[in-house]
Structures are given as structure tokens and as C-alpha cells.
Design a protein that fits this description.
The chain is α+β, with helices and mostly antiparallel strands. The protein has a single domain, classed as Glutaredoxin (3-Layer(aba) Sandwich), CATH 3.40.30.10. About 40% of the residues lie in helices and about 20% in strands. It is built from 6 helices and 9 strands, in the order H-H-E-E-E-H-E-H-E-H-E-E-E-E-H. Helix 3 packs across helix 6. About 35% of the residues are buried.
Length: about 200
């Protein structure tokens, strides 16, 4: 029994430091995401890829798909951006529904506006990239209940461990759904379409 417990503890420690450890199970994510108002979200002021100030008010009137990540993410981040890009394109082409994709970096020390612009262009030019001061990013992450922390590596290099959740935000800037990494592009677009139709009805 002790050996089994130690083995489980070792596995838990490995998962803890894995880049995907905070992924939300699909069922729980969709249920947990139906939370509105002040529970998740809040005002923010960040900088876009054109080096201009952006606040939450600038997104009023739009459905927004929000993702927190960082450009140096080795695997999960790029995959999630591909899912985001494909999902919003599917929604527009097949259902004539427009959702604004927004990417907020959790690594503002490396992800300046020009770097963020070049990175996001590789996935989808319409993705709005936001960065800012360390304090501003940390505050927004806290408001959106986003987990992240820096993991130091050799020299000055580091990774950022994060939760990798996406948030669907309605035109009033209220979070209505939360999606974990288990969603592929087709599942994500279908879930968003259902939410938009439910709201319009």
C-alpha cells in the first residue's frame, strides 16, 4: 500500500508540472462556464498589438472568445490557437455567426506588441492580441480566475504554467461559458453556436 501511495504521489507531482494540468473536464467546464456577472471577469486596461490602450468597454456589443496564453508555449498554446481560429472561421462560414477571438498573454515580459502581432498572424490575423504591464496582466488573470506561474529553467529561460481555458463572453462582457483543452474545433464551434442561439432565442 505505501508503495502504491508513493507511486500515485509521484504521478500527481508529474501532472502538477505538466503544461496541461489545469485543463477543465468537458462536462465540468461547460457547467462551470454558465457563470455570469462578477464571479468571473472584470474591468481591465491592456495594450493591443498596435501599442494602443484597450479596455473591456472596447469589446461591448461583440461576442468574444477569450484565451490566456503565451507565445513561448511549446505545445498546448499553439494547439489552442489553432482550435480557436478554426472554430471562429467555422462559425462564420457555416452559421454566419461572428465571434471575436482575443488572446491575452501571460508573459508580458517577452510578449511585447510587435512580437505578439507577428505570432498571432501565423494562426489567424483577426485574433486581437493584448499585453501590458506585469501588474495589469496579473490583475486581469485574477479577475478571470486564470491560474499561471513562472517555472524557471536553466539560465534565464522559463516556461509559464497556466490553466489554458477559453471563455465565451457575451456582448455585455459577461462570461457565459468556459471551455477546457478537451474541446476540438468542431466541438467548440458547436457549443458556441448553441449558446448564441439560446441567447438570441
Amino acid at each position: 500500500m505505501p508503495a502504491a501511495i508513493l507511486g500515485f504521489a509521484g504521478l500527481a507531482a508529474f501532472v502538477h508540472y505538466n503544461d496541461e494540468r489545469r485543463a477543465v473536464p468537458k462536462g465540468q467546464g461547460s457547467d462551470r462556464g454558465n457563470v455570469k456577472g462578477p464571479t468571473i471577469g472584470g474591468p481591465f486596461t491592456l495594450i493591443n498589438t498596435e501599442d494602443k490602450a484597450v479596455t473591456g468597454k472596447d469589446f461591448l456589443g461583440n461576442w468574444v472568445l477569450l484565451y490566456f496564453g503565451y507565445t513561448s508555449s511549446p505545445d498546448v498554446g499553439p494547439e489552442q490557437l489553432k482550435v480557436m481560429a478554426k472554430a471562429i472561421n467555422t462559425l462564420e462560414s457555416k452559421a454566419n455567426l461572428k465571434v471575436l477571438p482575443v488572446f491575452v498573454t501571460l508573459d508580458p515580459q517577452r510578449d511585447n506588441p510587435s512580437h505578439l502581432r507577428a505570432y498571432l498572424k501565423e494562426f489567424e490575423p483577426r485574433i486581437v492580441g493584448l499585453t501590458g504591464s506585469v501588474g495589469a496582466i496579473r490583475q486581469m488573470a485574477q479577475e478571470y480566475r486564470v491560474y499561471f506561474r513562472k517555472i524557471e529553467e536553466e539560465g534565464e529561460d522559463y516556461l509559464v504554467e497556466s490553466s489554458h481555458d477559453m471563455y465565451l463572453i457575451n456582448p455585455n462582457m459577461e462570461v457565459v461559458r468556459c471551455f477546457g483543452v478537451e474541446y476540438n474545433a468542431e466541438e467548440l464551434s458547436e457549443a458556441i453556436q448553441k449558446e448564441l442561439k439560446r441567447t438570441s432565442a
